[in-house]
Amino acid sequence: MEIVRSIMSQYGFVESDQKEKADIVLLMTCSIRDGAEKKVWNQLKLIRSNSVNKRQIVGVLGCMAERVRHDLLEKRNLVNIVAGPDSYRDLPRLVAVASGGSNAINVQLSLDETYADVQPIRVDAESRTAFISIMRGCDNMCTYCVVPFTRGRERSRPIDSIVEEVRRLRDQGYKQITLLGQNVNSYRDMTSMDFPMNPSTTEDRVPGFKTVYKPKSGGLTFTSLLEKVADAAPDVRFRFTSPHPKDFPMQLIEFIASRTNLCKQLHLPAQSGDDETLDRMGRGYSRDLYLRLVDDIRIILPNVSLTSDFIAGFCGETEEAHQNTLSLIREVGYSFCFVFPYSMRGKTRAHHRLTDDVPENVKARRHLDSTTVFREEAMKLNQKLIGTEQTVLLEGKSKRDVAFSHGRTDGGVKAVFDNSKSQLNPGQYAKVLITEANSQTLKAEFIRETDL
Ligand code: 5AD
Ligand code: SF4
Fold first, then answer.
1. Ligand nearest to C-alpha 181
2. Which residue has a Cα nearest atom 16 of ligand 1?
3. Are the C-beta atoms of residues 241 and 134 closer than 8 Å to each other?
4. Secondary structure (3-state) at 244
5. Is CATH 3.40.30.10 the classification given to domain 129-382?
6. Fewest CB within a 10 Å sphere: which of 14, 216, 348, 413?
7. Which residue has the higher pLDDT, 216 or 80?
8. Which whole-number Å values give the CA distances from 319 to 275, 314, 322, 362, in the listed order?
9. pLDDT per position as a tens digit, 176-194
10. The domain 389-450 belongs to what CATH superfamily?
């Protein structure tokens, strides 16, 4: 939306906070699970029924536009514009077409669109945290996933334009930047002339991990990007999401260890802890290989905070397979896990070749099991932090009690402390002493203001 806001404002459109009266309403959508799409359909009905503007134009943007383009346009009374993830530059034209009374559609996917030259317009500056998109698309083709079909081929935004955006955010007082993409750590800037002495090779991947695509080589890798951004803004914390476990060479982990402003928090989406399920998912690794990666990472980053994604009830997942996932979650000990009940998506390999045979109530129970187990482990990890000093970046005031502020530790765990005497603002770092912990939040005492 930050990119869309930027493009639309260049053409003179002004943002309104009155959805019912606005001339144009644009919805950014997600297709990853059926639930996400259902929400959009409900919203679309609500928008039309609440509108007081008879000529209001409604546009559906993003992955759902790409995936269900025809269904959307058939609902002529609900939708006027359908714009896929690579066609936002075309929005002003699409609006003009729709204003003339016709439906407007552009769902062309691109091999090189990264919106590198579009300066995103951010509206929530209060927390002093921002996201920067560094790459788009995905070539991994995990069998359950619709992303490669809705987002298209993987492509990386040139390093220089990312560094420029980092500098701009730093100058505006931002203190945390999350580098974003569908597969961030396979980032490769092939456009830069600034090639390293030893061009990266396929060894950028972790040995043993497999890909369905021909391994890429050359160009500037994710490690080079991290080096450039970390140098460009030494007082800004960097995080990144979402990576794939195959693209974590030890050189990258060692580099993260060497810089204080690269957070010691890694998202390592496992999806399952069962070999046969992982194989059907097409993830390119076994449980053992994944666990070896975790061990290797923990040798270099002993205090790293790991997070993950899991799918509950994928095609053919037996009770035993599910137990293997629970035991992996216990063995690794994540500070947070996103768990999703499996949702069959059209076009995917799973849709063509596998059967969605786990009943919904079983998916729901397994989903709950995985969440319960990760919380038990997260609780233990958080309790180990009691008595330690942590550096917290302030993000805002607590909703329950304004004397309290909240922020995040380097590991990404939420921490709350009494800020009434210190009066620090969002964007400032505080050294705090952790005094209490549950599975999601830490309570702390303020010690002093600090630099990163
Ligand atoms: N059903 C459920 N979860 C899915 N994810 C991707 N596709 C599906 C699907 N069809 C999850 C994966 C991924 C996260 C972003 O969404 O866990 O890592
Ligand atoms: Fe989907 Fe992520 Fe797999 Fe790409 S790597 S296909 S985005 S789950």
1. 2
2. 32
3. no
4. coil
5. no
6. 14
7. 80
8. 13, 11, 5, 9
9. 999 999 999 999 998 865 5
10. Nucleic acid-binding proteins (2.40.50.140)
CB 147 less than 6 A from any atom of ligand 2: yes
> Which of 30, 145, 267, 349 is the pocket-test mutation for ligand 1 (most atoms within 8 Å of CB)?
145
Q: Where are the domains of the chain?
A: 2-106, 129-382, 389-450
Determine the CATH number of domain 2-106: 3.40.50
Instruction: Give ligand 1 pocket residues (Cβ under 6 A).
Output: 32-33, 144-145, 269, 271, 309, 311, 340, 342-343, 345
Cα separations (Å) of 16 from 19, 360, 402?
7, 40, 30
Kindly provide the residue ranges of all beta strands, DSSP E only, lying in 151-279, ordered along the sequence: 155-156, 176-180, 188-189, 220-221, 237-241, 265-267
pLDDT digits (tens, 9 = 90+) for 40-75: 999 999 999 999 999 999 999 999 999 999 889 887
Q: How far is the CA of 207 from the centre of ligand 1 (A)?
A: 25
Is the Cα torsion angle 37, 181, 177, 381 positive or negative in sign? Answer: positive
Shortest-distance atom of ligand 1 to CA 341: 2
Neighbours of 158 (CB within 10 A): 17
Three-class SS of residue 266? strand
pLDDT averaged over the chain?
A: 94
pTM of the entire predicted model: 0.95
pLDDT category of residue 172 using cuts at 50, 70 and 90: very high
Measure the CA–CA gap between 280 and 289, rounded to whole angstroms: 16
**What percent of the chain shows pLDDT beyond 90?**
89
* CA-closest residue to ligand 2 atom 1: 145
Burial class (CB in 10 A: 0-12, 13-18, 19+), 33: middle
Tell me which residue has its CA closest to atom 13 in ligand 1. Answer: 309
